[in-house]
User: What shape does this take?
Amino acid sequence: MGKSLLEKAYQVIDETKKIGIGHLSTHSIQNGLKKAINIHGEKVIPFSLSDYLMLMHDERIIAGAIASIKENGFNLSISREFLHLDKTDEAEEILAKVFHNPVVLYPKTTLAHVGALPLLIDRKDAVILDHHVHATIQMASDMVRARGTHIEVIRHNNLEQLEQRIIELRKTHKKIWYLADGVYSMYGDVFPAKEIEALLNKYEEFYVYVDDAHGISWAGPNGSGYVLSQIRQHPKMILAVSFGKGFGVGGGAIVCPDDYIKKLLVYLSGPLMFTGPLESTTLGGLIASSKIHLSPEIVVLQDRLKALIDYFYTRCDELGLPLVSKARTPTAYFPMGKPENIYISGKIFFDEGFSVTAGLYPAVPVKNAGLRVQITLYQDESDVEMLLQIMKKVYDLFKKEQNFSIEETLKHFKG
Ligand SMILES: Cc1ncc(COP(=O)(O)O)c(C=O)c1O
Assistant: This one.
């Protein structure tokens, strides 16, 4: 980031802190059968958490974490190369049942990218980044670029451009990697899984690395995620996942297509050799959450959330509310154009008792400011309805006071 961009980002973030819509602190509080969060002494309904199934508060997961810390202490302070808690193997084995393929755990999804990408991608390969791929993949790609691998960016979800680039790059490179997200974390749109699967079958040199952090738990068999709800894991597909969102715990992993790749990552990933392992609490929590994912209960939770998601998108249509993507995921983005509109609308929502996420530069381009709303089991239909009624008032206010045009605002999101 150049100095002026850095200054711009600093100013925008500092403003959100000053007006009380960013950099807030909170703790959970009871809200009938659900949970709310406390911000500055106010009970606020969260539409800003990625804990989609509200598993973070599940007593069994908390008990698993406590039992593990009592048995093992907080942290086994040694590299996995020499010694690891047997709970690590237990967690990877049960997670392999959730994903139907070998799993390697990392303390964070970010560290999974840092560990896996430099090992999987060779200097003779080429990398194609989706324009919207998550910032953590872009960061890890810089490590690959530094070793001399060719990296280029294509327009978001543009399959025609992707295929053209595969055809061109396969003439000069051994493997062509496409790096993308399963569910894009700001706009909630999705990876075109079936079309990518067709390209994997068509071009021998084509490989895919997909980060489905936001697709886990609420989608897919046993909560294995959005991508695996659409296709089976292809032998040339690497899946990065997060357990810090829908799974209600923490940590990240790579789901490997075979045992060779699992061993390669376990033996040689930088973060597993040179930094510490997952804390024992996380391992205990992961095992407990996996048991829930492997039980019929996960379907009940997924169905409850799907009903709420359907209600949300149906009501958005009925109320004429604009969304950047209408893919029925728990993440939705209301475009608002300039950052000042987020200061106004964010404050309105907070005053009405709702927490939403400000979509501001550098998380989105400067002209793509908006509000991100996340549908979770912290809410019910009446909460969703109240939120959407406020959203309607916000857009009516913008139209009245600013000559605000939804069509003009949405133009900045194309391409
Ligand atoms: C798509 C995606 N990948 C990776 C991450 C980072 O995950 P972690 O906090 O486990 O490093 C995030 C975080 O929000 C994300 O949205």
Notes: The chain has a mean pLDDT of 95. The longest helix spans residues 297-319. The pocket of pyridoxal-5'-phosphate is lined by residues 108-110, 134, 136, 181, 185, 211, 213-214, 242, 244, 252 (CB under 6 Å).
